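Record 1 of the preview.
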Amino acid sequence: MGEVYRATDTKLGRDVALKVLPGEMAKDAERLGRFRREAKVLAQLDHPNIVTIYSVEECDGVHFLTMQLVEGLPLDRLICQNGLPVEQIVEIAEALADALSAAHEKDIVHRDLKPANVMVTNQGRVKVLDFGLAKDIRASNLGDATLTSDSRTQVGVVMGTPAYMSPEQTSGRPLDHRTDIFSLGVLLHEMATGRRPFEGNSSAELVSAILRDAPPSVTEKRPDLPSDLARIIRRCLEKDPRHRLQTARDVSNEFRDLARTIAGPASIPTSTARANVASDSGTARADEGFWVAVLPFKYSGTNPDLVSLAEGLSEEVITGLSRFSYLRVIAWGSTTKYSSESGDVRSIGKELGARYVMEGSLRQAGNRLRLTVQLADTVSGAHLWAETYERAFTPESVFEVQDDLVPRIVSTVADQYGILARSMSETLRSKSEDSLTPHEAVLRSFSFLERISPTEHATARRILERAAERDPNQADAWAMLAILYDAEFADEFNPRPDPLERAMAAAQRAVDLAPTHALGYYALAFTYFFRKEMASFRAAAERALALNPMDGSVMGILGICVHHAGERERGAQMAAAAMQLNPHHPPVLHSPTFIDAYSEAKYAEALDVAARMDMPGFFHAVALRAAALGQLGRHEAAQKALQELLTLRPDFAHSVRRDYEKWWDSKTTDHLIEGLRRAGLEIQ
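->
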């Protein structure tokens, strides 16, 4: 496709890569079009694991792209004869899957994923290169994918590199994003064993092997590899696209879960197969903290559609829970045996090493479907949560039902105001601060979200700062620290100099350490909001929502910010959607509804909303209630609200304008202050 040179941008004083289309290729309209298409594809993609394009240029008939210079080695030069260490395989695989997910979300298929197109930088970061064969599947005929074994694609034959192509790609059949998942499986197999899964002495033999042969399991050559790794690779290499892992995000979540399984002080060296079994045992997990297991949802009937739905629901719930970086979720492969076995939840939890176990069961009556889900603490034996969902059901609505129920279950259980966060943080309140691990410090800090007060803020900030000092690579600790520094600015809790500067540094550190974690981008967006950098706020917010659309708490709080930043309708919709996801949402999510009613002088309606915003120690809710009472002329009730407010925030009369202008525009601020004055608050 082109020749790549290292160059210096003399205007900006930085080194770049120039990808130059050779002169004879520039005369070929098809190749020139493909070259330009690569630039357009890259321009749509903004991801830390995809090379960044700066510009597309032409000078004196020479066509070239200016791109980010990636200093390191291509993956094909890093893979040794016996494969890579398992930790490195998992780290690279997760990054590759994240990059593919970002492309697929834009309907872009790479079509030529191979080790030579993957760079590992000197700092260990993965970068996917060479989108010259990428295709926008929304805007083109899918049937023109073709094959070549050399670097110069022959017109009219299938494009790609045979050894890494999917069965449908080698056959010239229409492609979708799942062709990249097969190519990723080939690449993973090579990283694990040092050999490709399919081989042949010619392109014809190679294609025949891809279409016909079942690849050997990676554990045949390397018994030390985790069984879950072998399962993921096998699922990626299924001949039929319908039987593969269906999305790159699913692959990424699998590897994120696998990384937790093999990491940490309880890991056992994987020098033998026996050692690997030990490291995957329930005992090892139990020593590492709060693990969560989702047992296969049960259905005792004979309807094959409901059998499929039960399996799909439990798999999707595991995938959804795995999007929450602070949760440790046991992989699907470790729980599948319980689809046919049953037993006491506490015994199962002990066997798996899971503190929390989720169960579900499906029943059908006519065209009605009932799903019952419950979550148990296996240590205490207590049922923490149970819910019953009823839906209309037809065979054609399987995916519709699944897409409706899974986000509700996941957010209710997993977001920062969810059942798990609340249980974990409450459990850790009795543990001494000095004995908290960095991961436990993150979980413990969630209690501030339930008790928004200076005392709880000081405790959470202190334990997180200690956690970040002990483990500077704990991304979630930095993200939560940024949120607490933002609260230090917004609510003036335990103020120290430059809270927003500290918040920005902490949020950026979280994003740099874990660019696929939604929590870091949420903290970054929150900080940009208070800095009044609204373009950056919106970009970070969109990234957080894209990385974890099932996080109701993030969606709701960002919805408040979007609303207060001027996009009132969209912000109110986001907050309302978040409340639908998690019935245990924070009451503050009602604030867009309050502001909308108050702004329209519907003060009685605003007062009703304010009554639903009560949170222990949260002075803002009391102040809004007082403003609505003041506008309604209910002086006695307004005076009681002011007494409560000044108990929580004695200096509120002097700080109110400063407080409100952090959140709202001057018109809304003036209107709220008017209500507080009418309530009897003496404001200068």
